[in-house]
Amino acid sequence: MLNEKYIQYLLKKQQEQPLTPEETAVVDAWYQSLDALPAEEVPAAAMLQLESWEHLEKEIRPRPLLRRLRWPLSAAAACILLLGAAALLRRPAPVTATAESWTVVDCPPHKRMKVTMPDGSSIWLNGGARLTYSSNFEENRQCRLTEGEAFFDVVPDAQHPFTVFTSRLSIKVLGTSFNVAAYSQLEKEKITVTGGKVQVLDSAACNVTLQANEEIVYSGAGNFIKQAANGQQTDSWRKGEFYLTNISLEELAIRLEQIYGYKVIFANKGLKNCVNSLRFSEQEPVTKVLELLKLINKVQYRIKDKEITLQGSGC
């Protein structure tokens, strides 16, 4: 069963503003889960739905659509009434009159690009990153980083908070600059603040406020680490300089493909978990980075065409 507190939050939010596509999917999944529940579990679950729509109906019309059910009722009668009401109310017309639309921006591989938003905020995308944002952005400052890495320099606007969504997190700001790395190939997401303050939340137990030179490394299901960081170095990739601190070879492989266009193959999968800290420039040849790995981790490499094969005993 989905988390009822989170469902309540989404149903209340839906009364005031459009849900994101991810949130809409969660609500839809919850509606569908009611159909699969055993009869004895339906009343408690459906009551949450009915009470939420009762509240919404009171806001729209002076006379409520449904009166709160009084318990005790027979289980059979309660199930019939609740399921019938759920069928009638399953997808009521949204409060807002217009559907949300989104603009998609894809950064080509091995490139970087800057996007100036309608409100004047600037977003830099690293190679292969995908950003979508609300087409009504000046009123609804929401965007989603669905793949890759991006740096955000946000124009303050207290009346219109700025929110960035990844696949698992939401980052809420008023005016600040921060870096988000959210690669679909990696288990961890990382948010690093250069200036100002942001709030990072997930659907479970993560609710963290970050200030300048702080970051969160998030590994899912409320598991995260908050730590000090160098914000200026973290976003130096915009200038072609890379300060990679305590990153796995798996993440480094993604970076090498971004920067140089080489696909990295691990002959020994255990090498992926080796952790390193490296500094280099995109102007330097890829062999310099590989020679550093050879010294630090005793990694052997072979380059053929546009593939790099890494070999070694692991860490």
TrEMBL record:
Domain (Protein FecR C-terminal): residue spans on this chain:
242-310
Q: Which InterPro entries match?
A: FecR, FecR_C, Ferrdict_sens_TM
Name of protein: Iron dicitrate transport regulator FecR
Spell out where the chain crosses the membrane. none
Which residues belong to any copy of the FecR protein domain?
109-198
Which PANTHER family does the entry mention?
PERIPLASMIC SIGNAL SENSOR AND SIGMA FACTOR ACTIVATOR FECR-RELATED, PROTEIN FECR
The source's domain of life comes to: Bacteria
